[in-house]
Amino acid sequence: MLDSPFLYLLVCTVKNRVLSRVRRLREPKYAIGAIVGVAYLYVWLVRPVRLGSQAGRGVGLPPSVIAPLQSVAIFFLWLIVLSRWFLPVSRQPLQLSASERDFLLPAPLARRRIIRYKVLRSLVGILFSTAIITVFARTAATSAWSLLAGTFLLFATVRLHLLGIALTRATLLEGRGHRDLAALVALVVVIAATCGAVWALAPAVVHMQRTGDLGAALELAHEALSQRGVTIALLPFTVMIRPLFAAWPAGFALAAVPAVLLALANYAWVLRSEGTFEQSTGASEHEVVEGRRAPARPVFRRAPFNLPVRGRAESAIVWKNLIMLGRYASVTMLVRVAVPPIVVAVVIGASHRTGLAATFMPIAMALCCGVTGFGPYMVRNDLRQDLVRLSVLKTWPISGKRLLWGEILASSGVVSLLVALLMLIAGGLSLAAPSEALPWRDRLAVGISAIVMFPALILAQVVIQNATVVLFPGWVAVGPARLRGIEAMGQQMLMFAGTVLLLAIGVLPGALLGGLLLLFGFPLVGWLATVPATLVAATLLVGEVVLAVHFLGMALERLDPSAIDLA
Predict the structure, then answer these.
(1) How many Cβ atoms are within 10 Å of 339's Cβ, its own excluded?
(2) Res 538: pLDDT
(3) What pLDDT is recorded for position 283?
(4) How far is it, in rounded angstroms, from Cα 96 to Cα 118?
(5) Residues 6+ apart with CB under 8 A from 71
(6) Which 3-state string (H, E, C) describes 503-530?
(7) What is the 3-state secondary structure (H, E, C) of 162-226?
(8) pLDDT (0 to 100) of residue 58
(9) Which residues is 477 bridged to in the sheet?
(10) Interior/surface letters 467-476, b for 16+ CB within 10 angstroms, e for the rest
C-alpha cells in the first residue's frame, strides 16, 4: 500500500479537500461560519482544558456503572451484527464511485489491492471520526488515549466485520457458501452467540414483563451476560469493548492485543472475499473497457396517494415532495411503523402495568418534544431541496405563494404526523395511571392542547427554514449535498440560533395572551383552561405564518436562479 499509487491518490485527495476548504474561506459566508465554529470549539473544548475545570475533564463515570455499560454495549453490538446477517441490505458491499469505476477497474491492478484501498480509505475516515468523538466524549472514567485508540479499534473492527458479512451473504445467496469455510464458521459463531444470548436474557425479559422494573431487569441482564457460557458465546464482542475502559497504558496494551488480532482476522476475512467483489464489479468493468455504460435504471416509487386530475396546486406539490421521501412515505410503511407500538402502548396502559408505563411514557414524551424541536431541521423535502431547480419551478403555472405552501406543508406534515404518533403512544401508556392522579377530563384537555400546539410550532419552524433559503439564497447551501467542516458547523449554529430567536418572537404574542387566559381560567376549570389558551396561542402563530408566507411568496417570484448557492 505504501509503495502503490493508492497512497498518492489518498494523499492528493486529502490535500485537495483541505485546499478547497481553505480557499472557500475567502467568501464571507464561509469565513463567518468558520469564526463561529472555531469560537464554539474554543469556548466549550479548548478553554475548559486550559483552565483544568471539571467541564474539560468530562463527567466521571462511577465504577458501578462501567460494568453494566459494557454489557449494554456488547448487547447492542450483537444486535447490529445479527441484523446485518439476517436482514436484507440493498447497497453493494463495496461501492465504487464513477471515477473509480472509470480509472481503477480498467487499470492493471489486482482486485485485492482495490479492496485493500477501499477498506484502508474508510479507516482514515474512521480515525477522524474517532478523534472528534474523543474530544466530545472524554470522561474521567477512562484515559483519553484509551478512548481514542479503543474507539478506533471498535469502529474499525465493526466496519470490517459488517463488510465481511455483506460479502459472505452474497456468497451464501449465490449457492457457493458450502465451499467457503470462513463463511460457514462465521455463520455458526453468530448462531451460537445468538442462542446463548437469547437463553441468558430470557429471565430478564420475563422479569421486565411481570414487574415493569427496568433497573432490576438491567441488573439481571448484566448477571446473565456474565455467565460462563454466555461470556464465551459473546467473547468477540467483549474483546472489542474492553479497550475502551482499560487503564492506559498497561491495561490497554493487554486488552488491545486480542482486539487487534480480531481486527486483523476480519481484515483477512474481507480480503478472502475477492471473488464476490470481482463478480459484483465485473459488469461495470466490462462496460468501461468496451467504452459503453448502461444507463441508470429509473427509480420507481409508490405514490403516497392518488393525485386527482383537478384540484389545488398545493396538493400536487405535497404529492411530489412526499414521493421525494421514497419508500418511507406510504400508507403501508405508516401502518408497519405506527400500529405495533400504539397497540403495545394501549395494552400496557389497559393492563395497568404502572412500572412499564412509568418507564416508557417519559421516553415517549421526550421523543415527542425532540421531534418537534429538531424534526424541521432533519426533514428537508421542501424548498431546501427544490430550490436548486428554481429555473424549472419558475416555468410552472403556479404563484410563488402556492408553491411555498405546498413545499411547507409537505415537510411540516411529515414531522407533525411523527409527533402525533408519539403522542398516541404516550396517551396509550397514560391509561395505566390511576384516575385519582389526573382525571380523564384533564388528560383529554392536555392531549388536545398538545395536538393543537405542536403542529403550529413545527409549521413556524419550517417556514423560518424556508424563509432563510428564499431571502438569503447565497448564504445557504441547498439541495441534497450537505456542507462539512468547521465553517459548515458554524453556519448551522447560526441558523439554529436565528430560528430559535425568530420562533421565540413569533410565539411571544400568543404566549402572553394564552398565558393570561390560563392564569384566570385555571382556578375556575382547572386543566380545561389549557385548551382555549393553546387555541389562542396556536391561532396567532398560524396567522403570523400565513402573513409571512404571503410576503415570502412574492420574494420567491422575484428570486433569480443565479443567486442560489449550489455548493
Answers:
(1) 11
(2) 93
(3) 44
(4) 9
(5) 221, 222, 225, 226
(6) HHHHHHHHHHHHHHHHHHHHHHHHHHHH
(7) HHHHHHHHHHHHCCCHHHCHHHHHHHHHHHHHHHHHHHHHHHHHHHHHHHCCHHHHHHHHHHHHC
(8) 41
(9) 565
(10) bbbbeebebb
Q: How far apart are CA 344 and CA 476, in angstroms?
A: 43
First-to-final CA distance of the chain: 33
Please list the rounded mean pLDDT of every run of 10 residues in the chain (567 residues): 68 82 78 80 62 44 62 76 69 67 74 77 79 62 72 87 77 57 67 69 61 57 63 78 80 87 85 60 47 52 76 86 73 71 77 71 85 87 85 86 91 90 86 72 86 92 90 74 70 82 91 91 86 93 94 88 65
pLDDT for position 453:
92
Q: Closest by alpha carbon to 548, among 471, 491, 484?
A: 471
Q: Name residue, grid cell 424541521.
A: 376
Within 10 A of 107 (CB to CB), how many other CB atoms are there?
10
Give backbone dihedrals phi and psi of 476, rounded to 5 degrees, phi first. Answer: -125, 130
Cell of 203: 429471565
Looking at this protein, which amino acid is placed at residue 352? H
Q: Residue 332, Cβ neighbours under 10 Å: how many? A: 9
* CA–CA gap between residue 507 and residue 498 (Å, rounded): 14
- What pLDDT shows up at residue 464? 93
565 SS3 class: strand
For residue 270, which amino acid is it?
V
Q: Which three cell numbers stand for residue 535?
A: 387555541
- Cβ burial of 552 (10 Å; 0-12, 13-18, 19+) is buried
Q: What pTM was computed for the model?
A: 0.69
Confidence (pLDDT) at 74: 77
* Residue 42, C-alpha cell as written in the block: 474554543
Q: Tell me the C-alpha distance between 487 and 30, whole Å.
A: 6
CB of 469 within 8 A of CB of 476?
Answer: yes
Q: What's the rounded Cα separation, in Å, for the pair 525 and 142?
A: 54
Distance CA 220, CA 204 (A): 5
- Residue 349: Cβ within 10 Å count: 22
